[in-house]
UniProtKB/TrEMBL annotation:
<dbReference type="InterPro" id="IPR022911">
    <property type="entry name" value="Phe_tRNA_ligase_alpha1_bac"/>
</dbReference>
<dbReference type="InterPro" id="IPR010978">
    <property type="entry name" value="tRNA-bd_arm"/>
</dbReference>
<keyword id="KW-0479">Metal-binding</keyword>
<dbReference type="GO" id="GO:0000049">
    <property type="term" value="F:tRNA binding"/>
</dbReference>
<keyword id="KW-0648">Protein biosynthesis</keyword>
<dbReference type="InterPro" id="IPR004529">
    <property type="entry name" value="Phe-tRNA-synth_IIc_asu"/>
</dbReference>
<dbReference type="InterPro" id="IPR004188">
    <property type="entry name" value="Phe-tRNA_ligase_II_N"/>
</dbReference>
<dbReference type="GO" id="GO:0004826">
    <property type="term" value="F:phenylalanine-tRNA ligase activity"/>
</dbReference>
<dbReference type="Pfam" id="PF02912">
    <property type="entry name" value="Phe_tRNA-synt_N"/>
</dbReference>
<dbReference type="InterPro" id="IPR002319">
    <property type="entry name" value="Phenylalanyl-tRNA_Synthase"/>
</dbReference>
<dbReference type="GO" id="GO:0016740">
    <property type="term" value="F:transferase activity"/>
</dbReference>
<keyword id="KW-0547">Nucleotide-binding</keyword>
<keyword id="KW-0030">Aminoacyl-tRNA synthetase</keyword>
<comment type="subunit">
    <text>Tetramer of two alpha and two beta subunits.</text>
</comment>
<dbReference type="GO" id="GO:0005737">
    <property type="term" value="C:cytoplasm"/>
</dbReference>
<dbReference type="GO" id="GO:0000287">
    <property type="term" value="F:magnesium ion binding"/>
</dbReference>
<dbReference type="GO" id="GO:0140096">
    <property type="term" value="F:catalytic activity, acting on a protein"/>
</dbReference>
Length: 339
């Protein structure tokens, strides 16, 4: 893996240096960092790396990504300056005409937040796994200890294609599918779009995004869960961030908890942002229920694990202090260009 990474780094940096114009440079950017780029494909093979080596490999990948992004920006600035010099030499400018402005797009706040979360967990040795948005009722509910008559189904009212097929209400089905493969241990996060029959308002939408995490191994305890989420909160919101766990109930975890983080705006003293409490609710978590392990053919006497889930929009709203979720989807340029 280290040799592959070094080879990819060397090849991409050569391509950047050899770029003759901005179009060629953009092709290099896509081939390196795009959805099917060399680094993205390398991340998909993280499952081939030994669990104890994943944190180190993840850190190496992040360092190479940062180096490539810096090289791309540096080369882009050089090419833009060169192109401007050529235009000034070859073009005659009519100063009586109004100036033309080109609108350049950039990443959406959700995308920025997702990349930050993925960076944190890949750095801790986690694998990023994705699954289908149109899901079987079994994987979305029954395999998660939510039978047909369970009241939790009312809370996750969803869109049914037929009696057996639904639009998923959470990304937990990806975890079930991964557990069914029987390749242990497991350290993964599952980001993706989910659907619920909610009215559109400042905090709800019928379509939104979740990031769920799962760890399955021998001798995993609630202490491991607490340590993981504490480190995640510090990386995301700042080194001084603290976490608080409140007992809760989820059908697929036992024990379960809601997690609060100390307000990064006032440092926990109490302000308008945290409604005077000093704490902000961020996610739900718990130890994987033994029934869920059994349904995935994992022996709960030998293995244990923890799971957690957080709304991607919630992270974006908190991180950028946005008070209305609808702003993320209205495509108002005045709003989006701030990020």
């Amino acid at each position: 893996m280290k040799e592959k990474l070094a080879k990819i780094r060397e090849e991409i940096l050569k391509q950047i240096d050899a770029s003759e114009n901005l179009d060629k440079l953009n092709e290099v950017r896509v081939s390196a960092l795009g959805k099917k780029g060399a680094l993205t494909e390398l991340l998909k093979s993280m499952k081939e790396v030994a669990p104890q080596d994943r944190p180190k490999v993840g850190q190496m990948v992040n360092e190479v990504r940062a180096e490539i992004e810096t090289a791309l920006e540096t080369e882009k600035a050089k090419l833009e300056d060169r192109a401007m010099e050529a235009r000034l030499k070859n073009e005659v400018i009519d100063v009586t005409l109004p100036a033309k402005k080109n609108s350049v797009g950039h990443r959406h706040p959700n995308t920025i937040a997702l990349e930050e979360v993925e960076r944190i967990f890949v750095g801790m040795g986690y694998e990023v796994v994705r699954g289908p948005e149109v899901e079987k009722d079994y994987y979305n509910f029954e395999a998660l200890n939510i039978p047909k008559d369970h009241p939790a189904r009312d809370e996750q009212d969803t869109f049914y294609i037929n009696e057996e097929i639904v639009l998923r209400t959470q990304t937990s089905p990806v975890q079930v599918r991964t557990m069914e493969q029987g390749k242990l241990p497991i350290r993964m996060i599952a980001p993706g779009r989910v659907f619920r029959s909610d009215e559109v308002d400042a905090t709800h939408s019928p379509s939104f995004h979740q990031i769920e995490g799962l760890v399955i191994d021998k001798n995993i305890t609630f202490a491991d869960l607490k340590g993981t989420l504490a480190e995640f909160a510090k990386e995301l919101f700042g080194e001084d961030t603290k976490v608080k766990f409140r007992p809760h109930h989820f059908p697929f975890t036992e024990p379960s908890a809601e997690v609060d983080v100390s307000c990064f705006k006032c440092g926990g003293k109490g302000c308008r942002f945290c409604k005077g409490s000093g704490w902000i609710e961020i996610l739900g978590c718990g130890m994987v229920h033994p029934k869920v392990l059994k349904m995935c053919n994992i022996d709960p006497e030998e293995y244990s694990g923890f799971a957690f889930g957080v709304g991607l929009e919630r992270i974006a709203l908190l991180k950028y202090e946005i008070d209305d979720m609808r702003l993320l989807y209205e495509n108002d340029i005045r709003f989006l260009k701030q990020f």
